[in-house]
Amino acid sequence: MAHWFGNCFETGGLARFIMEGMTPREAERYSRQIRFSGIGEEGQKRILRACVAIIGCGALGSFEAGALARAGVGRLRIIDRDYLELSNLQRQWLFEEADVEEGLPKAVAAARRIARINPGVEVEAAVADLTARNAGELLGGVDLLLDGTDNFETRYLLNDFAVSRGAPWIYGAAVGSYGLVMPVLPGETACLRCVFPEPPAGVQPTCETTGVLGPITSLVASLQTAEALKILAGRHEHVSRRITTIDVWSGVIRQLEPPRRDPACPACGRGEFPWLDGSRRAPISLCGRNAVQIHERSRPVDLPALAAALAELGEVRVNEFALRFFLPPYELTVFPDGRAIVKGTQDVGVARSLYARYVGN
Ligand SMILES: [Zn+2]
Asked: How far is the CA of 298 from the centre of ligand 1 (A)?
């Protein structure tokens, strides 16, 4: 349902409107946020007109989507490639058992729930795998990009897109009890590649292999949402310039000094966007009748380390040439150069999702 912004003025002569550009219901609904001096009436109007893309609707993204819908963001574009599973419910705020039983894609389940939370918010649900090819279509025309992804490949694509378009984005990540938040205002603050020029090499911890606590995901997503509200309300000057790291188990919270922009940064310094032009993305091909091959070029994988990480999750067989991981109905075969064959599906999105989860790309 579209936000009925234009309708506000049609019956304006009746003096029913407490605030110009806002209905009485909106003024009441968002009154506590409007009363907060950092937002105010002007900030709330901006929020009502804003469009935000949430990339990944898992633990972080589902919290952000719900929180921004409650805050009155006019349009939310929710992009996610996965279907709901029972193991998501421990931390993925918007979803319920019925969604899992119905086998809903996360983006669709999120849109349904948001329609009940705040029908004034227009939600565009995209059940899609974000790639260089569809990034312009899926991410174009939004005021802000929120990172709810679970993999570095997509984050570097987001950074390329955001820096190339001058759009702000907020990096957020959580695994185990640890999380991190870093807002990126292109041209103003350091971008992801100023701080981490290349994605981390080797096997990375994932929520599947290391586990994750609900509270760290909601904490990271809350911080991202707070930064988002500052940006959407037009209060860029209040956006945190620091990287915040939190461990909810040890209780340690750190704010790292604001990283400097690197004039030699490939992205925001030199204007090179290899993830966006597709040259850095792992090509994928259908392989046989029921398998997908993921060709990686520069991400060597330590097979014994990966075998150790996966051992508790399913049957693993490993030798020096390949690792096979059995996860019925799927079977992953991973090679030392990072290439993998995912058997049991012809769906490229499913294959990439399994790879991201279990190999930790
Ligand atoms: Zn940079």
From this structure: 21
Answer yes or no: pTM beyond 0.90. Answer: no
Q: Tell me the CA–centroid distance for residue 158 and ligand 1, in Å.
A: 13
- The residues pairing with 78 across neighbouring beta strands, listed in sequence order, are 54, 125
Distance 242 CA to ligand 1 centre (A): 15
Q: Distance (Å, rounded) from C-alpha 331 to C-alpha 16?
A: 62
- List the chain pLDDT tens, one digit each, 361 residues: 333 333 333 333 343 345 678 999 999 999 999 999 999 999 999 999 999 999 999 999 999 999 999 999 999 999 998 889 899 999 998 999 999 998 888 999 999 999 999 999 999 999 888 889 899 999 999 999 999 998 888 999 999 999 999 999 999 999 999 999 999 999 999 999 999 999 887 777 888 888 999 999 999 999 999 999 999 999 999 999 999 999 999 999 999 988 899 999 999 999 999 999 988 866 676 666 688 888 765 578 889 999 999 999 999 998 877 899 999 999 998 888 788 889 898 888 888 889 888 987 6
Q: Tell me if residue 351 falls in helix, strand or coil.
A: helix
Cα 52 to ligand 1 centre (Å): 22
Are β-strands 243-247 and 178-184 bridged in parallel, bridged antiparallel, or unpaired? antiparallel
Sheet holding 284-286, edge to edge: 284-286, 291-294, 340-343, 330-334, 323-327, 315-318
- Ligand 1: centre distance to CA 149 (Å): 20
Largest CA distance in the chain: 77
19 DSSP β-pair partners? 22
Q: Are strands 291-294 and 340-343 parallel, antiparallel or unpaired?
A: antiparallel
Q: How far is the CA of 284 from the centre of ligand 1 (A)?
A: 28
Q: How far is the CA of 193 from the centre of ligand 1 (A)?
A: 5
Could you tell me the distance, in angstroms and rounded to a whole number, from the CA of residue 301 to the centre of ligand 1? 27
CA of 288 to the centre of ligand 1 (A): 41
